[in-house]
């Protein structure tokens, strides 16, 4: 990954979409994974050969979601 550090809060209405950009003349194509909200839109560009990085990201996101579920279970009002 090229270096960029930023912070954005995920909200319940955060959207995610995947767009395929097929190979064109002289280009191998890529996939865009875009996360968006009202003020922030983050696009991750993945080229062929980087599928494992996306799988690692998916596993980390699943781990984070499980941690949030555990937090919600331990708070008095059931919220995070």
> Which structural class should the secondary elements be placed in?
alpha+beta
Mean pLDDT: 90
Radius of gyration: 16 Å
Strand order of the largest sheet: 1-2-3
The major beta sheet can be summarized as: 3 strands, antiparallel
What's the short story on this structure?
It contains one helix and three strands; from the N terminus they run E-E-E-H. It has one helix at residues 51-74; strands at residues 15-21, 30-36, 41-46.
Any overview of this molecule?
With 80 residues, the protein is of the alpha+beta class. Helix content is 30%, strand content 25%. It contains 1 helix and 3 strands. A 3-stranded antiparallel beta sheet has the order 1-2-3, with no helix packed on it. A hairpin with an 8-residue loop joins strand 1 (15-21) and strand 2 (30-36). The radius of gyration is 16 Å and the shape is elongated.
List the keywords.
80 residues, alpha+beta, three-stranded antiparallel β-sheet, 3 strands, 30% helix, elongated
Task: Spell out the blueprint of helices and strands.
Elements: E1 15-21, E2 30-36, E3 41-46, H1 51-74
Antiparallel strand pairs: 1-2, 2-3
């Amino acid at each position: 990954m090229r270096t960029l550090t930023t912070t954005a809060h995920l909200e319940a209405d955060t959207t995610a979409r995947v767009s395929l950009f097929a190979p064109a003349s002289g280009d191998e194509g890529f996939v865009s994974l875009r996360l968006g909200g009202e003020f922030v839109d983050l696009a991750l560009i993945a080229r062929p050969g980087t599928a494992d990085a996306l799988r690692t990201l998916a596993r980390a996101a699943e781990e984070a979601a499980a941690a949030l579920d555990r937090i919600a279970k331990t708070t008095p009002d059931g919220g995070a």
